[in-house]
Specification:
CATH topology: Rossmann fold
Helix content: 25-40%
Number of domains: 1
Distance between the termini: 33 Å
CATH class: Alpha Beta
Radius of gyration: 17 Å
Oligomer: single chain
CATH architecture: 3-Layer(aba) Sandwich
Bound molecules: hypoxanthine
Number of strands: 10
Strand order of the largest sheet: 5-8-7-6-9
Amino acid sequence: MENLRSKIQESVRFIQDRIDFQPEVGIILGTGLGALVDDVECDRVIPYQDIPHFPISTVESHHGNLILGELSGKKVMVMQGRFHYYEGYSLVTVTFPVRVMKGMGINTLVVSNAAGGMNRNMKRGDLMIIADHINLMGNNPLIGPNDPELGPRFPDMMKVYDPELRELALTIATEKGMRIHQGTYVVLAGPNFETPAEYRFLIAIGADAVGMSTVPEVIVARHSGMRVFGVSCITDLAVDGVIEEVSEQIVIQAANEAEPKLTMLIRELVGRLK
Ligand code: HPA
């Protein structure tokens, strides 16, 4: 544990030595959703491989850069590309960058992902504000000895996704005339997509979207007391009776198409954060 804290401190110092401001918002961009960085007035780009203790992203569709700069007047630290459990990393490793964000003094985390839509009101390319989640990864980033300096042994999970930020996102979507949903995200380990029986199960337990990321980072963010906003980009549909085939290409293409909407939502939200 001492060890985890000293690793966090080393990474924090490495990043702080390269910037002369204090980021206040952390942003994690999911599959096919990296274009937000074009809107960031970029101060520094640090490849993950340069940062001590940072893992290296192995998925082709994910860039591996930490971007530090300004978005909508706020100082931000953006992860262009994240780490997944299915790549073989432990969840402590997957969530290490969130610990570093907290160590940098960041108290707000914005996360995005590509997800399969399972609600019959959804269309491909829609956005879903994450209102709650179900962890079916079969693992948890907090398993192991707990360091009380980092957070409590048994963190509360009643309001994981900040209600005020969700309300703000709904307001922005209404103003911009954007179709948006709000629902429950369920996470599985992956890397295979779901079988029809698995989709039926996930629908039955009340999930609206399914993916392979986000929940570990969000658990760690809440453990460390950050407020969280999460949004899924619906890249394929598995609604009752219509289960479509899905592939990485389909997911990336749909995410790329929906990206301008996602970018606009995050840009506006960050600008209006208090
Ligand atoms: N299942 C799991 N993960 C996903 C999906 C899906 O259908 N679409 C995008 N990521």
